[in-house]
Amino acid sequence: MSKIEQSWYQAPGLITLLLLPCSGLFWLLSTARKWLYKRHILTVCSSKTPIIVVGNISVGGNGKTPFVIWLAQYLQDKNLKVAVISRGYGGHSNQYPILVTETTPSSVAGDEPVLIYRRLRCLVMVGPDRQASIEKLNREHQPDIIISDDGMQHYKMARTLECCIVDSERQFGNNLLLPAGPLRETRARLKSVDLVIENGGEATYRYDLQTAALRYVVDDKIVTQSVRSGHATSAIGNPKRFEASLNALGYTLKSTLHFRDHFAYDEHDFAKFNDDIVFMTEKDAVKCRRFAKPTWYYLPVDAKPTQPVIDTLNSLLKEKGILNGL
């Protein structure tokens, strides 16, 4: 984490003061852009398929992906054909949009889209132009519902429903806009979303992350032998949450190693561990399978929303005509 990012979650200091004018400019430009879309001066693209946006108002990992996976599974269980679109951050391709398949590497599609596909085997379309992804899905695959992983601030994209994810631990930092703070939009934006859901914490509208059995990075098989300690490495927005999960399960961490979110690993990043046990997240694992050692494990997590979240979401889906009264 850079010094600027660290300053977002500390008492205001010199860095914050120096960056405030830039945050003022960011507010001016973003507000003007929203106003242009609201007044239909800039065109909002339409979609014949309902779109649910799962996003946030702050940068950094807030835990969207576990909720996207839960939501997609929830809708699949309602017999809907679900598709997910993603920017594919961290991936690079010569051609977009691309449909994620069994052989698509994270270096092309990004880590989160590959993770979502491997969990759900649903349609996952990746590309920087979300409208192009939506049009290709509608033209070639005719999904019943599209989930946009992130994109709350992509006002060009139509949306039927918005779910905003908030990290219960970090919340909104110093409550300032970028770059003096972590916010993409002010907290007033929360009043216009359909559902605000906290990742962890004690809020009524939240989801908790439930851990599953350790799995081998090399082949996804469940680890059956006794494991007591190892090194933890992660390239996620909030590594402390991952490490706390390992500690809660009784694992002793010999060391921790943090990389920036979506970091593209190679084998040299693990050289100092030799053949020691290494713990990582599932999002990390999809990037390391190609060169993983048999002593590397990942910890799967699943989102478990509270009943108020499920009840409210169900009501919203019926109200918007997505569930058709089911």
Short note summarizing the structure:
The protein is α/β, with parallel strands linked by helices and 326 residues long.
What descriptors fit this protein?
326 residues; nine-stranded mixed beta sheet; five-stranded mixed beta sheet
Task: Characterise this structure.
- This protein is an alpha/beta fold and 326 residues long.
- The protein folds into two domains: 37-208 and 304-319, 3-Layer(aba) Sandwich (Rossmann fold), CATH 3.40.50; 213-299.
- The protein has nine helices and 14 strands.
- It has helices at 3-7, 14-38, 64-76, 106-109, 111-120, 130-140, 239-248, 282-288, 307-319, and strands spanning 51-55, 82-86, 98-99, 123-126, 145-149, 161-167, 195-199, 206-211, 215-216, 229-234, 252-258, 278-281, 296-299, 301-305.
- The strands form two sheets. The chain has a nine-stranded mixed beta sheet with strand order 3-4-2-5-1-6-7-8-14, with helices on both faces. It has a five-stranded mixed beta sheet with strand order 9-13-12-10-11.
- Strand 10 (229-234), helix 7 (239-248) and strand 11 (252-258) form a beta-alpha-beta unit.
- Helix 3 runs parallel beside helix 5 (111-120).
- The N and C termini lie far apart (45 Å).
- The model has no long low-confidence stretch (mean pLDDT 94).
